[in-house]
Amino acid sequence: MSNTPSDITLGGFDSFERKLGDELRGERATMGKSLLDVQRELRVKAAYISAIENCDVSVFPNASFVAGYVRSYARYLELDPEVTFARFCVEARFQSASVELGGTPTKKKKTSLQPITDPQSWTPNMPGNGVDGRSGTAGATVAAAGPAVVLAAVVAILGYGAWFVLQDIQRVEFAPIEDNPMVAFEPDNLGGASLDASDGFLASSIELAADPSILYSRRELDIPVVQPRDGPIFAINPDAENDAVVVTEETDLVETEVVVVIEGSPRVSETPYVPTVSVVAVQEAWVRVYQENGTILFEKILAAGEQYSLPRDAPTAYLRAGNATAVYLMIDDDAYGPLSDSDSVVRDIALLPTSVADTMTGVAEPSVALQVAAEAWRSQNLARLSQ
Fold first, then answer.
1. Which residues are bridge partners to 309 per DSSP?
2. What is the pTM of this model?
3. What sign does the dihedral 24-30-35-39 (CA atoms) show?
4. Strand, coil or helix: what is 227?
């Protein structure tokens, strides 16, 4: 058998099977959109768009989303959503939820109302009228008035409640007192008192009660009586007046000065005289003056003829000295000593005037060093008194 040109069938574009995925990809390529562009504009993941083009239902996490995604993608490519979804179900062997439940989309039946041509055939139970024969317009009016009545009742109840609360807040009640009132003060001097109409106070009270305007009327101030203390000018004697003034001023000044001196003079308190106690060295000697608590007031090696005077306001002090035969004590200008007959160290010698005078012997013929110390004490004492 030979093949002739009449036996050869040429295949065209329509002879090939067209799949839904090829058409969707072609429409998307015609629009110049990529999967990412579709994802950004349609808000659907690129993986889902690719699954729709490949008719692969396994990519979707839930089968209920497939119908919406397919129809949305069809509208985006300007294709018929229903036809596209039907082809997708055939090629992907997918059944929607409505088909799986065995239901078919049903449309609501429209009931057509026929006009009443014969008024005699009208009955109360015909469409457009109530059961009791009232018109539909009247029933609608009553139904619309119901919410208005309920709203008015609610407003009235709220208004009454607010008014009642306001009245209860503003109400003031007086609580009764359990204890009987008692008189806080009862004067004692009214036992034999009696009201007498002749009394001035009672009379004025009766007058005020009869005419209250007296209480509120202005009272005229009494004019003070002024008596002049100065006489006529021609009776003034300048000479006599000056003499009298001078005498009076001097007398007053003298009296004032006397009073001031007498009243302002300080009271002199007699304080006992405390003599000065001094430590004198006729030769070099180490001395330490300290208090009972151990505080050292003075410590030094005194040279020959050098002395240390204890302050008068100082508390009880004690003396410790070396080379005791060369150390003397002086009370004012009287010398006592020496502290010891040997050159040993003496300690705990109380520097009190009475103790020194009682325990130590006085020096009848003081040495030159003691005389110099006494003269120095006298000069210091005179200088202090002269200041």
1. 278
2. 0.30
3. negative
4. coil
**Domain positions in the chain:** 20-100, 277-386
CA nearest neighbour of 348 among 319, 370, 311: 319
Tracing tokens 């995925």 back to the chain, one arrives at 21
Closest by CA to 327, choosing from 288, 365, 383, is 288
Q: Alpha-carbon distance 372 to 378, whole Å?
A: 10
Q: State how far the Cα of 276 lies from the Cα of 356, in Å rounded to an integer.
A: 12
Which tokens belong to 226? Answer: 């002024």
Find where tokens 């200008």 sit: 333
3-class state of residue 290 by DSSP: strand
Reported as a single tens digit per residue, the pLDDT across 16-51 is 677 888 888 889 899 998 999 999 998 989 999 998
How far from chain centre, in Å, is Cα 237? 79
d(CA 373, CA 302) in angstroms, rounded, equals 12
Token pair for 259: 């009073």
Separation of alpha carbons 328 and 217, rounded Å: 101
Residue type, 265: S
Q: Cβ atoms within 10 A of the Cβ of 306, count?
A: 19
Query: CA–CA separation, 153 vs 185, rounded Å?
Result: 62
CA distance 289 to 315: 11
- Alpha helices, DSSP H, located in 43-170: 46-54, 66-76, 81-92, 97-100, 136-170
- Buried b / exposed e over 309-337, threshold 16 CB at 10 Å, is bbeeeeeebbbbbbbbbbbbbbbebebbb
Distance CA 290, CA 318 (A): 5
Residue type, 331: I
Residue with tokens 């090696």: 301
Instruction: Give the sign of the dihedral formed by CA 195, CA 200, CA 201, CA 203.
Output: positive
Which pLDDT tens digit goes with each residue over 196-240?
545 555 566 666 666 666 666 666 666 766 766 666 776 777 776
Strand runs (DSSP E) across 187-305, as ranges? Answer: 277-281, 285-291, 296-302
Nearest to 36, CA basis, from 28, 69, 60:
28
Q: Between 3.90.550.10, 3.10.180.10, 1.10.3470.10, 1.10.260.40, what CATH number should domain 20-100 receive? A: 1.10.260.40
DSSP string, 304-358: TT-EEEPPTT---EEEEESSGGGEEEEETTEEE--S-SSSS-EEEEE--HHHHHH
